[in-house]
Design goal:
This protein is mainly α and 51 residues long. Helices cover 57% and strands 0% of the residues.
């Protein structure tokens, strides 16, 4: 009985990883921090060449 229960747990863990890993990658891709994109900060002080 212990072997069959262990086998079921192994199958459940494998299925969990097969479902959890792609979902985690998709979530990380959607919630990517803006530092990874080449986007300047929203506030930039105006550069005045008259100085």
């Amino acid at each position: 009985m212990a072997i069959s229960v262990f086998g079921i747990l192994v199958v459940l863990v494998i299925l969990f990883l097969l479902v959890f890993i792609p979902v985690l990658l998709i979530i990380r891709a959607k919630t990517r921090p803006p530092e990874q994109h080449a986007v300047p900060p929203p506030y930039q002080p105006p550069v005045s060449p008259d100085d």
